[in-house]
Amino acid sequence: MTKLPWWRADASEMMAVTAMGVWEAVLAGGGRRFIKRKDSDAGETGRALEELRSSLYNEMHSSEGAKRQQQRFCGPSVALTFNFAVAVGIIMANKMVMGSVGFKFPIALSLIHYAVAFVLMATLKTLSLLPVAPPSKSTPFSSIFALGAVMSLSTGLANVSLKHNSVGFYQMAKIAVTPTIVVAEFMLFQKKVSSQKAITLAVVSFGVAVATVTDLEFNFFGACVALAWIVPSAVNKILWSSLQQSGNWTALALMWKTTPITIFFLLTLMPLLDPPGLLLFNWNIRNSCAIIISALFGFLLQWSGALALGRKENR
Question: Which is an annotated Pfam family here (predicted)?
C-alpha cells in the first residue's frame, strides 16, 4: 500500500476535521433547533388531531352532542317538510295494504311497523350509529313507559280509523288533533298561542278540510274510533315534544327506548281490536313487500314526526 506524502496526509486530515467541525457547529446551532422545531410541530399536529378526534367522539357519543348535530342538520323547516311528505306516503301505503292487498288487521300492521323500526334501530346501534340516550336520572322511567303506552294507542287507533273511514274522514279527524294539542297545552302548561299562529292554524285546517271534503264517507264505528284516536294522538305529541326539549333526547334515541314498550302494548291490543285470521292471510311476495314498504314509511313517519316535535320553538 502506497503511503501518502506527509503534506497530503495532513491536508486530508485537516479537511476531515474541518468537515466534522462544520457539521457539529450546524447541529449545535440552527440544525438542532430545526430538528427540534420539526419534532415540536409533529407533536402539536398529533395533539390537534387527537383533540379533533375526541371532540367528534363526544359529538356522536353524548346526548348533548347528538342533540346539537340533530338541530344543526335538521331545522324546523326540513323536519316539517320531511314529516309532511312521509305522512302523505304512509296514508296511501296503509290504505293500499288494507284495501287492495286485503290486510284487514290494523293493530297487527302497527305492530309490524314498530317491529321493523326496532330491527332498523338495532342495526344502527350495532354499527354505533344510534345516538346515545341521556343519563337515566334525567328522565324517569315512568315518563318513558307512559309515552310508549300512549304511542301504541295513537298508532293503533289511527290505523283502525283508516281501515273503517275514507281518507278524507281520516284527514278531517287528523285536523282536530292540532287544536286539541293547543287546548291541552294551555290547560296543562298554561302555554298560549299567538294570534298569528292561531290564524295560520285555522287557514291550514280549513284548506285541508276543503281539499278532502269530497272524499268524506261517514261510518258510525269509524267515527267513534276517530274520536277516540284524537286524545291519545294529542297526548303523544305533547309528551314527545316535552321529553325531547327538556331531556336532551334525540329522535332516534327516544324511539329506541319507547319502541319495546309500544310493541308490548300493541300485542295486548291486537286480540281486542283485530279480527281473527292473521295467520291465514296470504303471505305471498307481493303482499309481504307491500306491508314491508308500509312499515318503512311507518319508521320514517315516526322519525320525522319526532324530529318535528323536538324542534325548539321561538318564545
Answer: TPT
